[in-house]
Amino acid sequence: MNPNLARLQTYPFEKLRTLFAGITPPADLSPIRLSIGEPQHPTPGFIRQALADNLGGLSSYPLTLGSDALRDSIAGWLERRYGLPKIDSATQVVPVNGTREALFAFGQCVVDGGKPGAKVLCPNPFYQIYEGATYLAGAEPVFLNHLPEDGFASDFDSIGDAAWRGVQLVYVCSPGNPTGRVLSLDEWKRLFELSDRHGFVIAADECYSEIYFDDEARPIGGLEAAWRLGRTDFRNIVMFSSLSKRSNVPGMRSGFVAGDARILKDFVLYRTYHGCQMSPAVQAASAVAWNDETHVAENRRLYREKFARITPMLAPWLPVSLPDAGFYHWVRTPLPDTEFARRLQAEYNVTVLPGSYLARESNGINPGDGFVRIALVADTHECVEAAERIIDFCKTL
């Protein structure tokens, strides 16, 4: 067996099951699960219909690069969303089966684990796939703490020159999971400067980019930042996006990688052997989803409504504020995060995720300690009910 498998840590939701062992929540309170970032808004009917109308494609083997129609729809969306020039859909776009598998696979493709001192920089707290990809690629993770005292900014200069040496890949998540923080253009500029100096590739996880609260301040993307800063070849930057959150189709497993054509050429070669082509039916449904913005605007409206209701409800009891984007509240707790989550589950049947499960100790601290992640993914009525129970719980503390 690959010895690096032994380095993989237990996934947060497995830890949560262990934390809740022996708990019997009140029978008169229905369970409300706000722990997992799984969109629960209805899938738009036209996407479901497109999937059903294209089941004939199941009789064909799909291509690794997917259909021209899908790649063209993604390229068109990138141009409209980020104000980019013509994207070459043949060389700068690769459809993938959701960002999770692509983020992991990308690490295996670009990291040379046989090189002494191979490292991958990850945000902290973070999406655990980054860490798993690092270990399975034979590299060591370096963690960049995102801290409340500086607004969860990405302070790349806090990583010393010695730590940068050997870094081959940098994962960034913007809007951030779980903090909701969006990288600024200045932060992108600094990251590009460091990439030029040290030669690493940047993997920008942007799957929450379409859930935002101000139409005049849409989250900037990695390719947009590169273009605005004169990096018109997108050198050493690729971005990952998905329909899961944008279009409420997490079960379709549909996303894409776009950016540096030189890197994507090798990634396509890797994927040819990896065997992860997207179903033709899913490709057809994905193309119509990327071509439509009306359902995305409605999805944003639902999240805005929930945050407008829930945030002022919780504010007198917990230090909540509107994130830059995304559907999480990242909340400091008055108790240790695991105790807060366990008691809330046991006494009020509301599930939230301890922040310490989403982070690693780095520079002497775990930046998730004392926080919980609350995913406002259920419908508004259920989220309001959960907020009322959380308030009742806080009143007992």
Could you describe the 3D structure shown?
Helices cover 40% and strands 14% of the residues. The protein has 397 residues and is of the alpha/beta class. The strands form three sheets. It has a seven-stranded mixed beta sheet, with helices on both faces. The longest helix has 21 residues, at 294-314. The model has no long low-confidence stretch (mean pLDDT 97).
The name of the CATH topology of the largest domain is: Aspartate Aminotransferase, domain 2
Assembly classification:
single chain
Number of domains: 2
Helix content: 25-40%
Euclidean distance between termini CA atoms: 48 Å
Computed Rg: 21 Å
Q: Largest sheet, described in full?
A: 7 strands, mixed
Overview in brief:
With 397 residues, the protein is an alpha/beta fold.
Features:
LL-DAP_aminotransferase, pyridoxal phosphate binding, 2 domains, 397 residues, 12 strands, three-stranded antiparallel sheet, aminotransferase, alpha/beta, Aspartate Aminotransferase, domain 1, Aspartate Aminotransferase, domain 2, Succinyldiaminopimelate transaminase
Protein topology:
Layout: H1 12-19, E1 32-33, H2 45-53, H3 68-82, E2 93-96, H4 98-110, E3 119-124, H5 129-136, E4 140-145, H6 161-164, E5 167-173, H7 185-198, E6 201-205, H8 222-228, E7 237-242, H9 243-247, E8 255-259, H10 261-274, H11 280-290, H12 294-314, E9 328-332, H13 337-348, E10 350-351, E11 353-354, E12 371-375, H14 380-395
Parallel strand pairs: 1-10, 3-4, 3-5, 5-6, 6-7
Antiparallel strand pairs: 2-8, 7-8, 9-12, 11-12
